[in-house]
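User: I'm putting together a small comparison set for a docking exercise, and I want a reference complex before I start. The sequence is below, and the ligand is 2-oxoglutaric acid. Could you produce the 3D structure with the ligand included, as structure tokens?
Assistant: Of course. I'll restate your input first, then give the structure tokens for the complex.
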Amino acid sequence: MRALLRAPTSPAPAPEPAPVPVEEVAPRAFLSLDYSGEPTAGLIRIFITAFAPEPMLATLVLSARDQTLHKADIALAPQKQTRWLALHGHLLGDGVHEIRVELLDSEGGLLAQGVASIFARNRGALAQRVTESLTRQGAPIVIDQCGSELYDYADRQVTPWFDRDAEAAAAHIAALVQDGTIDSAEAAIFEHFVDHGFLVVEDLLGPDELEALNLAVEDAVAKGLEGYEWGSSQRLHNLHERYPAVRKLWLHPKVTRLLDLIFDAPARPCQSLTYVFGSQQDHHQDTIHLTPFPAGYMCGVWTALEDVQPSSGELVVYPGTHRLPRIYRQTVDLPPVVDGDWTSFGDKVVTRWKQMLDDLAVAPQVYQPKAGTVLIWHENLMHAGSVREDLTKSRKSIVCHYFAEGVVGYYDSSATPGAMHLDARG
Ligand SMILES: O=C(O)CCC(=O)C(=O)O
Ligand SMILES: [Fe+2]
């Protein structure tokens, strides 16, 4: 039997449609993102660069898990423009977050998009308390300008032990002695910090450490880093990035131990500033420049690299002034300082500081330490670099500033997020 082969019943394939010429649609806008994928505490910044071949208005949208976090109208132009947005890692929760960034046209059509994988690190009791305070305050998750108005500085639940009443501070120090964390000599220096706003430790550095630090400064001067000219009051920024000896000081265990005890949380370095001669800086509180929320969780550490000579433009501190009100931009209705124009800052902030000091009539203490001595100041302590009466005398010193991990660190004067190096200590 021959099998009957049947013809397939399906219809013959339709003829291919004639190709329609496809018009290449050129993208109308472009977007790129720059951010750190490293664990970050506090504010997490995303830099957004955008442009469009033709000038146009667009909407910038940030979202996470399809929830819109931020929306802003922006003007795009053929020139690339970079702006930043920062996220409160406290409000995102611990771990990695995919943040979608989109540019939309006026009809909501997608023009360009990108994703930033950021890593919020919120460790420890302080981070927890700060998260609760930000939540109570209703702080926004995303900000495009930093400032004290975002936070509840009156929230007593986040006040550090040294800024509480005298009995609470004394009890805190007594408990540290009791459990063997500090001895009575250290208790005395912490009491000094509480009462006067600074503490001093002599001979913290040994001769070898001092020699290595001085060699680093000499090298920086010889190379003319940052255009440094011998004899000037100019400061050199972040020499710890270049010189291992300075990095060692920046992370010095004897210093960070004291800071950890002050903060009751790990100290994280922010920056280092090296002075060869006196700074001649006006009296100021660091608060408005290196600003923690909650208040108190930032310290400056001043290390003498040589014996400080009279008339060299010594550091002066105003004991007890850490109890003065804190001055933020918001306090004096000051816009952010941009492009190095400090005129309004001088008019509003420096004037206010002077007024407060005059009213208090406190005598400045001129600081003439021996090489290797370290002074730690409270974030709000008034201090200055005095006038250099003898211009030939150097005053080699390094100042490092530290935030406590778990806080929000920012620079109120410029309204930008602050640096907090989380893992530098290892
Ligand atoms: O060293 C000085 O004269 C002042 C430095 C200072 O005020 C600072 O770094 O915060
Ligand atoms: Fe300062």
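Confidence is low (pLDDT under 50) at residues 1-11. The longest strand covers residues 110-120.
User: Thanks, that's exactly what I needed.
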